Amino acid sequence: MQKALFIVIAVGLGIGFLIPTGPSEAPQTEAAAADAAPAEAAPKARPASVTSGSWGGEARLTRRGNGHFYGNAMVNGQPVEMIIDTGASSVALTVEDARRIGIAVDPASFEVVGTGASGPVRGQPIQLDSVELEGRRINGVSGAVLEGLEHSLLGQSYLSRIGSITMNGDYLTLR
User: Fold this and answer.
1) Domains plus CATH for the chain?
2) CA-CA-CA-CA torsion sign (9, 87, 91, 149)
3) Distance between CA atoms of 147 and 65, rounded to whole angstroms?
4) Which of the chain's ends, N or C, has fewer CB atoms near its CB within 10 Å?
5) 42-66 pLDDT, tens per residue?
6) Of the candidates 128, 122, 58, the residue with the CA atom closest to the CA atom of residue 97
7) CB 126 within 8 A of CB 93
């Protein structure tokens, strides 16, 4: 079962690598974009508004110019900018993000955890204490640290447990 999970992650990564990327922008949500003055960049860790309190509310993320939705998640209590990837089976962290938030990573012990468009995907399975995005905290989230991953991904091991996610035009809404 876990091998199938990592295969789906790898396929999602392969698809993600095929999508062209433009220059990186500061992560913004609808609320952050409205609050930022035109001459100043939005703060990197600024949260989106949750329209009716915490968990029961709604939060909207705005699509960036490169076509992806980004969120500033708290992973094990530490901020990590992540691409919201509904096609990924689980949370996938870059080696750099994993180390920065205190996860022991030994690339020498990485193993094949799945297969992607480019072939075998190597990494290390992990269990995260908590992942939180826009006030939606989930404890005990499975994931992996993946070799060669350029940006951490927020996949289904988190997303399937928060309620509903809808995408309409340039907005992704969490309910």
Assistant:
1) 2-21+28-33+44-174 (2.40.70.10)
2) positive
3) 26
4) N
5) 333 333 333 333 456 788 999 999 9
6) 128
7) yes
Count of positions (residues) in the chain: 175
Total-model pTM: 0.69
Let me know: does 81 contact 72? Beta carbons within 8 Å.
Answer: yes
- C-alpha separations of 161 from 81, 117, 145, 157 in Å: 19, 27, 20, 7
For residue 171, what are the contacts with CB-CB under 8 A and spacing of at least 6? 30, 60, 61, 62, 63
Note whether 72 and 47 are within 8 A (CB). yes
Q: Find tokens 């992942």 and name the residue.
A: 131
